[in-house]
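Protein modeling request. Please complete all fields; requests missing the sequence field cannot be processed.
Requester role: graduate student
Desired output: 3D structure, token encoding
Chains: 1
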Amino acid sequence: MSAGPALLDVREIHTAYGLSRVLFGVSVEVRAGECVCLLGRNGVGKSTTMRSIIGLTPPQAGRVMWKGTDITGWEPYRVARAGIGFVPEDRRIFADLTVWENLDVARKRGPWTLERVFDLFPKLRELTSRNGGYLSGGEQQMLTIARTLMGNPELLLLDEPSEGLAPIVVNHLREQIARLKREGLTILLAEQNVDFSLALAERVYVLEKGSIRFSGSAERLRDDEALRHELLAL
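Delivered output (234 residues):
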């Protein structure tokens, strides 16, 4: 883990949907080159934390700091332009656009190009002329990640990327995210899939009822079955 300052520093955020409070003082740090995971059961606030960072559901209190700048409440397009890419849980591809058009619309100057995303996800090269709405779930997930990479982010937010996918697709996706990590991309991952997460992350935050219940190394959680059961057993 890098000893430098945090790229992303989420400080004691409280977020609500209307009168329904979801996050209660959540703090998360992500340093350059890390893969950090938000773990927890369904409905504990993982996606809301992601939405708070990207600006879709701004926190009512607390701060979201990006490379030392307070971006709390910024519009999502400004957050994206600042270098944070978001892969949402529901994928949100453009169903009526082709794979190529989905990628081209997100293109931003930088190291991630069409050729590079096709190298990461060779299947997409075969599907360039197919409309997004006709892709399988796994193909849509690849396209959503590839489209986000075309924006050349410094930090990639991945919200429940393995949800609803067949095990063989999940394994392939894990390999590709591991490759992104090896290439130096900084990643914040929100997941329910414990094995998937612990295979990728250096550090883990476990959420429960909108608060951080555990923060520490992924290795500690991997090696301590009793702790995993206590924090994450259904």
